[in-house]
Write a structure and sequence with these properties.
Elements: E1 26-31, E2 43-52, E3 58-61, H1 62-65, E4 69-72, H2 78-83, E5 92-97, E6 116-125
Antiparallel strand pairs: 1-5, 2-3, 2-4, 2-6, 5-6
Length: 126
């Protein structure tokens, strides 16, 4: 008997990255979704986990708050604006986002200058 595709995903574990941080946005599908596809102008409902590339420290997680979040893609960091479209509901995607596509290369934000890894579960698209 096959695994049900609607099985809820649990909080992801992120392996400590090896090697130097990528200079380009990296997009890896961990689970292929089968639902509606996110577009650049979509509002998305996601569960996500964010860790710093260099330290492996978790800096943000909707899992920690126990609820998904909803937001328009255009209001997010460039790495998400570029990395989420094409994803389908039910999918899980890992984005490795260099500073220029995250919170900038210098100052102004605690995560400035850092390469960030996000694992994003797409729950719904509006």
């Amino acid at each position: 008997m096959g695994r049900m595709s609607e099985a809820p995903l649990t909080k992801p574990e992120i392996d400590f990255p090896e090697g130097p941080a990528p200079t380009e946005l990296e997009i890896v599908d961990l689970v292929e979704g089968t639902g509606a596809e996110a577009q650049a102008g979509s509002t998305v409902e996601v569960h996500y986990l964010g860790v710093e590339y260099d330290s492996g420290e978790e800096f943000d997680s909707s899992w920690g708050r126990g609820e998904t979040i909803n937001f328009p893609l255009r209001s997010l960091i460039q790495g998400w604006q570029l990395g989420i479209p094409g994803m389908k509901v039910g999918g899980r995607r890992k984005l490795t986002v260099p500073p220029a596509q995250a919170y900038g290369t210098a100052g102004g934000h605690p995560l400035s200058g850092k390469t960030l890894i996000f694992v994003i579960d797409l729950k719904n698209v509006g």
